[in-house]
Amino acid sequence: MPIVGCVVFAKPEKGKEVEEKLKKIKNVEVYAGEYKEEDKAYLIVVVLEGETFEDVEALEKQINSIDGVMHVGVAEAYFLDEFEKIEKGEIVPKNPFGKRRGCSSCKLNIVEDENEGKVH
Predict the structure, then answer these.
(1) Is the separation of the CB atoms in 53 and 1 below 8 Å?
(2) Residue-level pLDDT, tens digit, the chain, 120 residues
(3) Strand partners, 34
(4) Residue 6 burial (C-beta neighbours within 10 Å; 0-12, 13-18, 19+)
(5) Contact 99/108 with Cβ under 8 angstroms?
(6) Which of the residues 37, 60, 82, 108 has an alpha carbon 20 to 30 A from that of 54?
């Protein structure tokens, strides 16, 4: 199970509101929040959990869409369990680069993108 520790940077005037919204999101644990003068932001320490990397990525996108959030900074990430499941064939990650096949003439992989055609 991927586990990612993050710091959410929120606008100072929206910090408490953002913190309360984060507490309502499933698989997001909120640990601390306070205004930091040196950062000119309200910082909130959170931990995100998901079954896959895509789940954690979706949580990050959801957090970034909250009014008042300026940035989500990743402090620590643990994906070992997911890597082991991939090795065992228990899960197959999505390939953001399209289908791959070998190129006999140049010994490189060719990425086939449905919209763009072949790309080396």
Answers:
(1) no
(2) 788 999 999 999 999 999 999 999 999 999 999 999 998 999 999 999 998 888 999 999 999 999 999 999 988 877 777 777 777 787 777 665 555 555 555 555 444 545 554 444
(3) 43
(4) buried
(5) no
(6) 108
Considering the entire predicted model, what is its pTM? Answer: 0.69
Q: Which two tokens stand for residue 58?
A: 């979706």
Q: What are phi and psi of 59, to 5 degrees?
A: -65, -45
Q: Tokens 């989500």 sit at which residue? A: 72
Gap between the Cα atoms of 114 and 24, Å rounded:
39
**Domains parsed from the chain with CATH numbers:** 3-88 (3.30.70.920), 95-120 (no CATH)
Q: How distant is the alpha carbon of residue 1 from its chain centre?
A: 13
